[in-house]
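RECORD TYPE: inverse folding
INPUT: structure tokens
STRUCTURE:
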């Protein structure tokens, strides 16, 4: 089960983090990987995040107006 990090920057970062936390390299790598796994698993996919916005947008009535420059100028008060 040995694991070797051959990238100097990565090895240095792991050693620095381990020293700051006062932990072994193994514990430091395990905690970092477990934390990242938890973040990834908890992350809501973009499609799901946009679904509520899309559902809300579909409830708006059609106005028949063109969304052209004049329309947006009017919305912004001609600014």
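DESIGNED SEQUENCE:
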């Amino acid at each position: 089960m040995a694991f070797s990090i051959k990238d100097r920057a990565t090895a240095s970062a792991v050693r620095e983090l381990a020293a700051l936390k006062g932990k072994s390299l193994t514990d430091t790598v395990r905690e970092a990987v477990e934390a990242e796994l938890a973040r990834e698993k908890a992350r809501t996919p973009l499609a799901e995040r946009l679904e509520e916005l899309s559902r809300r947008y579909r409830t708006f009535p059609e106005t028949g107006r063109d969304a052209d420059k004049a329309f947006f100028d009017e919305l912004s008060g001609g600014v």
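NOTES: Residues 8-57 form one domain.
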